[in-house]
């Protein structure tokens, strides 16, 4: 039997995301991809006091964003949604603020990356309830990412915070 005469069976997955669920997960995906990119941009160009610690901590943020984007995209495929991680899509849709060009001092880099993380967390929190109402499994991914990113924002912000007395 040759490939032309073989038929491929049609297999339908049991759960299909609504357009709203797909759109919400796409928003998360877009912001995670953007966070990964700007995290590396800052990682490569940060200079100043406590450089090494901030430099390494930025890799943690990038890893969370990279692994999270893959998990969200694969979840989308598992529920019959189509992820779109093309650069033009990410650029047009992200809520992550644009990264500064060139070298950046550690304090400014920390302030920027915390604002970028907070933008992603706002997206995660903004879609959570709608995602949860349709698909608790996807909601679990959103919740996990929210906790990890909020922890990173805390770690990084502690680099420049002054104690409240």
From TrEMBL:
Database matches in CDD domains: DPS (cd01043)
Signal sequence, start to end: none
UniProt GO molecular function: ferric iron binding; oxidoreductase activity, acting on metal ions
Stretches assigned to the Ferritin/DPS domain: 23-161
PANTHER family assigned to the protein according to its UniProt record, in alphabetical order: DNA PROTECTION DURING STARVATION PROTEIN 1, GENERAL STRESS PROTEIN 20U
Family: Belongs to the Dps family.
Name of protein: DNA starvation/stationary phase protection protein
Source species of the chain: Actinomyces oris
Organism phylogeny: Bacteria, Bacillati, Actinomycetota, Actinomycetes, Actinomycetales
């Amino acid at each position: 039997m040759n490939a032309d005469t073989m038929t491929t069976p049609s297999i339908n997955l049991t759960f299909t995301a609504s357009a709203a669920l797909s759109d919400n997960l796409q928003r998360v995906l877009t912001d995670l991809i953007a966070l990964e990119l700007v995290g590396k941009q800052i990682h490569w160009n940060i200079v100043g006091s406590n450089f090494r610690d901030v430099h390494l901590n930025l890799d943690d943020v990038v890893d969370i964003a990279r692994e999270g984007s893959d998990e969200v995209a694969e979840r989308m495929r598992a529920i019959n949604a189509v992820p779109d991680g093309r650069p033009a899509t990410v650029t047009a849709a992200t809520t992550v603020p644009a990264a500064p060009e060139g070298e950046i001092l550690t304090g400014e880099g920390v302030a920027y990356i915390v604002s970028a993380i907070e933008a992603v967390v706002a997206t995660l929190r903004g879609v959570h309830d709608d995602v949860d109402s349709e698909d608790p499994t996807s909601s679990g991914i959103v919740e996990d990412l929210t906790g990890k990113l909020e922890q990173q924002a805390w770690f990084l912000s502690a680099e420049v915070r002054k104690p409240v007395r």
